[in-house]
Amino acid sequence: xxxxxxxxxxxxxxxxxxxxxxxxxxxxxxxxxxxxxxxxxxxxxxxxxxxxxxxxxxxxxxxxxxxxxxxxxxxxxxxxxxxxxxxxxxxxxxxxxxxxxxxxxxxxxxxxxxxxxxxxxxxxxxxxxxxxxxxxxxxxxxxxxxxxxxxxxxxxxxxxxxxxxxxxxxxxxxxxxxxxxxxxxxxxxxxxxxxxxxxxxxxxxxxxxxxxxxxxxxxxxxxxxxxxxxxxxxxxxxxxxxxxxxxxxxxxxxxxxxxxxxxxxxxxxxxxxxxxxxxxxxxxxxxxxxxxxxxxxxxxxxxxxxxxxxxxxxxxxxxxxxxxxxxxxxxxxxxxxxxxxxxxxxxxxxxxxxxxxxxxxxxxxxxxxxxxxxxxxxxxxxxxxxxxxxxxxxxxxxxxxxxxxxxxxxxxxxxxxxxxxxxxxxxxxxxxxxxxxxxxxxxxxxxxxxxxxxxxxxxxxxxxxxxxxxxxxxxxxxxxxxxxxxxxxxxxxxxxxxxxxxxxxxxxxxxxxxxxxxxxxxxxxxxxxxxxxxxxxxxxxxxxxxxxxxxxxxxxxxxxxxxxxxxxxxxxxxxxxxxxxxxxxxxxxxxxxxxxxxxxxxxxxxxxxxxxxxxxxxxxxxxxxxxxxxxxxxxxxxxxxxxxxxxxxxxxxxxxxxxxxxxxxxxxxxxxxxxxxxxxxxxxxxxxxxxxxxxxxxxxxxxxxxxxxxxxxxxxxxxxxxxxxxxxxxxxxxxxxxxxxxxxxx
Length: 746
Known about the structure:
Number of helices: 20
Number of strands: 26
Strand content: 15-25%
Low-confidence stretches: 6-59
């Protein structure tokens, strides 16, 4: 699950980053909590439902059909009602006999997910104007995992790179990609054209890591920082090649079940002062996986992949020796899989497969075993991961300074096995709270930062300053998908945190009406069709590029493609797709067959390459009104009258101190209320204290029972590995999917 990403971070970050033709923005993004780690309002270890939801409301003739049910019972019923077709098709896809059939069947499952309209896709990272001192093509183009958050490969100049030079470099990148020659060429090109290269990189960030334990986290605010302090077995380079890192080589058995890695010798674990702690050995990967399984933050990623990992997580087995990972000797590591897994190697760029220095972990109070970890974690004796000084490092950087909401400084690790081949020696992150829409631009202009995205506010300033015409570029979109969420059963009307109070003004009657409306598919589709996403998006990126980053599906349409001809059943008709068909085309075929007027894929987009981005395939006022009429009729049968005299109210929290988010909230409100002639009223709920109140209302909650909104736009997903499952599994039931809590279940 790489990322439940907070959309807040797209405001400031577009050119903290460089990029290449496929990923030119490298914008920061965040996770919210994992549904696998439930808190109050979910279940305790006995499986009994705990307290945590407010008393359901019954008002007038309207009856809450879930008033007498536990949170788990409500979740199960709402999930089956709204996502039953999706999960049936997804389960079927996982039984496919070939990779291409799997992709096609997953596309059909995604169509069912989008048709449910429990969320509406909004946008991706990128697709906006930016200025940067970072050379294009020096971050990996791979769309999944965490390697595109590594900075050691960046090539950075002391000056902004001109638009003309950026275009020439991208053309050369496309020519050299896959040869291993681009890095040297790029350095020479920049030097020959008058640029001075430097070995430092300064970028903006807006959320401190919540932990320094890079294994026990599900938030990208953590993983995006921490990926720079460890190495994995393999790493994708700037040309998209998966290259040896801590593994020097690997072999795969003929049956595809056993992967054997030869571990690089001489790698050292060090502390934050650079002092050597231990040699890195194969057993450290075993320790890393056991720690991941013990703490559970991302343990579900192993389920069905690594032999017996799920059984260990469930407590069916307690002996780690029965799990499919083994240190054959100090420098030989072996994984045994449950079944051949085509995307297994793509999973290695995520922290679930990171090593852990066993001896150092134990010296900081760390223990192994699920029960043992549960008893130790949070006690005074367990100090591992609480600060940069309480973790062991084996990556290109050590953290030498961390001042909360101010600065994070990464210095090159003098014991790093590949220290002679990193371009950035000092990486500095500068905190911004987003309250000043011009700050990152002004800091970039002054040289405090090495890049900045340009917004509706800062494009005119850059034009006046004479920087826009000569230096601007449009960043490419990436695989992150941000979404508009609908809470199907809201029970929280103030924040779960005592420190941040965001209080709803809804009456008891309005609460019931809103919940019943959100449970109605026609109502949700009406909102999706009636919401002008172009105008909404323009508040961040500006009018000139407002459509480029709009996304119409959850999994990007070009994420994978068929490598062989496939015939699948679409509504009783055998439908054939040739090799080379993109995933999005199959999603579109199912949606069209089901009669939904949603355009999620355009074969002519992206200059004929095909894409799910760059157009608004949902917005249509006539379609919105048709769905709304159906919703009005069905809701009337439940005692919910909707009219101009008695409009439907629902809450939408927003960060009021950040102009972009205030403007976007108002664009959402005006668009929807205008489409439905005032029969829907979106009550904007201002959140102050920087981002803190908004985060707690819409982002940091662990259980659906603590979601303090009817609708919100803070959150999305970025992929962990190269298979559509990395997106679709986020909507699994039973506390397994990371994003189901965003729709008010589990």
